[in-house]
Amino acid sequence: MTYLSDPLDLRHGHPLPNRLVLAPMTNQQSNPDGTLSDDELAWLVARAEGGFGLLQTAAAYVHPAGQVWPGQLSISSDEHLPGLERLAAAVSAAGARSSVQLHHGGVRAEKALSGQEVMGPWDDAQTGVRGMTTGEVQQAVEDFAEAAARAEKAGIDGIEVHGGHGYLVGQFLDASNNLRADGYGTDPTGRARFVKEVVHAVRERTGPGFHIGLRLSVERYGLVLTDMVQLVGELFASGDIDILDLSLWDVAKPPTNAPEGGRTLLEHFLDLPRHGTALGVAGHLTSAAAVKRVLDQGADLAYIGKAAIADHAFSLRAIADPGYRAPSFPVTRDHLRSEKLADPFVSYFATNWPQLVQD
Fold first, then answer.
1. What ranges do the domains of the chain cover?
2. For the residues 126-151, what does the mean pLDDT come to?
3. Per-residue b/e over 245-269, b at no fewer than 16 CB within 10 Å?
4. CATH number for the domain whose boundaries are 20-328
């Protein structure tokens, strides 16, 4: 029997104090140069003080050419170290662990923000995206490894490679579009090569006191479910990752276009041998009971998104009260501001999910 308050030992790095993780969420409230802002620090520290065992930053680009949003956090140079050091110290002082999500937009990057050429696994004449050379693919692996080493230097407890939601790492896994013939595409082995090389390079560049996470989507974005089950099994066996974070949108949903009454999407992954890797899940976890349910199913960690927006202390309250449920949406802008969302985050949230915000 696993409880929300149970600590969790990881293969590498410090134990996590409980099973609740602040999910990585785009918020556009970092400084224009990618350095950590006071607003971003306040948002994260409030969740650390609110009892989350692991604090996951928003996606931080590992190279300027990978930037997707204005106000995006960066970890692409040593100029970003002071802010990351502040974050590491503040989260630790609140009794939680910290992790930076490493990100590159690939074909979804914005030239208007970076001023740099947009590249990805394939060419796209309509958008002007250029397919990366083999050497550029290998340099991207190094960019992730350098960013992870920078996080460790700053005192951050770990990183999460963003392999979900159709960004660069996930683009290599796209069976519909990644037709590269240089060993980084075309078949399941080739498509999986990039993510495996990234997490292996990160593991080689960081020490035993530093944990490595990986977020994956397992359907949509050109992904083939059977390929993803195979990949997850291989990643578990590799020993290169300490946490796998499955972004499922809804932990209870069936696979897209699956017949009624079959296994849920999550159930395709629960029985795979984990070899010491922790399994985290995200998707519509808005109550203590929902978190307990996925832990009872066999997940090790619950990643909390919108419920953590609505209540910075979701973790403390869910641990204390098995009947606790996060505030229901829609909520007001003033409520969001009281929960330490700065105006850019409030605007981003209201624009993308207008049904969740009352004006």
1. 20-328
2. 97
3. bbbbeebeebbeeeeeeeebbbebb
4. 3.20.20.70
